[in-house]
Amino acid sequence: MHYKVIQYSSLCFLLFLSLVSCNADDPSENSTRLRIRLTDAASLEIKELTIDIQSIEVMVADSLNREEEWVALQFAGGEYNLLKLMNGKSVQLVDQYFPAGGRLQKIRLILGNNNRLLTTTNEIIPLELPSEMTEGIVIDNVDAELPSHIISSIVIDVNAALSVRESNGNYSFHPVARAFPEIWGGSLRGYVAPIEANAFIAVVQAPDTFLTLPEADGMFMFTGLKEGYCEVHVMANPLTHYRDTLFTDSIVQGKITEITPRPIQLMPSAP
Predict the structure, then answer these.
(1) Residue among 81, 83, 82, 16 at smallest CA distance from 224
(2) How far apart are CA 163 and CA 165, in angstroms?
(3) How far is it, in rounded angstroms, from Cα 72 to Cα 121?
(4) Domain spanning 186-265, CATH architecture
(5) Most CB atoms closer than 10 Å: which of 24, 88, 192, 255?
(6) Which pLDDT band holds residue 35 (cuts at 50, 70, 90)?
(7) SS3 at position 197
C-alpha cells in the first residue's frame, strides 16, 4: 500500500491528547498517530444522555498560524451515552495516522438527529439541535502539537449538566465542551460515603466548574485539571438529610492528587 507523505504545519485538537512512543512500522516518516477519545462531566437529573455523532473534522494551522481547510477523520459514526464516561472513563472515537508537523486548532463534531436523554423518571426525550449547530459543533483553542513518531491522544469532555436546555416543554442540546491533551494538567481522585447520601461532586477552578457523580464504591475522579488551587464541593442530595462539605487542594501537573480522608464521610444533618 502506498501512503502519500503530506507536509502539514501546526496541528491542534480539542480532544484527549496523550503522547507515547509510536511503533517503528509507521506508514510514513512524517506522520503521527492520532487518537480521539470522548469523556463526560456528570448531569444531576439526567439518567442517560446519548449523542449521535456522524462525523469528526479537524482544522489545522501552518507555522504562520494560518488555518487550513476542515479535514474529515476516519470515523464511521456512532451513538454514545455520555453518562457512562465519567470518573476518568472514555471511549476512543478515532485512531489513525495523520500528517505530522502541525498544530491542531479546532475540532468539529457533526451530529445526527438521534440525540436524546433518559430522565431519572425513565422518560425518553428527543433533543433538538439549535439552528446554529446544524453544520457542526466547533471546539476552539486546542493548540495541540502533532510531532512525528508520536501517538497524539486527545479528549473531548462534554459537560452534560450544562448542555441540555428546556423551553416551553421542548428540549435542545447546546453542548458545553472542552478538549485537552491527555498529558496536560493533573487529576483529582477521592471517595465519598455513605452511598445513601446520593452525593455529587463539583470542582471549582475559576472560572470553570466541573461536575461528576461517584461510582458504586464512592470513587470519583477528575482529569484534565489545570495546575494550582481548587475547591472540592461534596454535596448531598437534600432529601437524604446529610451535610455538605468543602475541601481545598492543589493540582500538580502530571500527578493524581488523592483526597484524604478516604472516604470523605458525610455526616447526618442535625435534627
Answers:
(1) 16
(2) 7
(3) 38
(4) Sandwich (2.60)
(5) 192
(6) confident
(7) helix
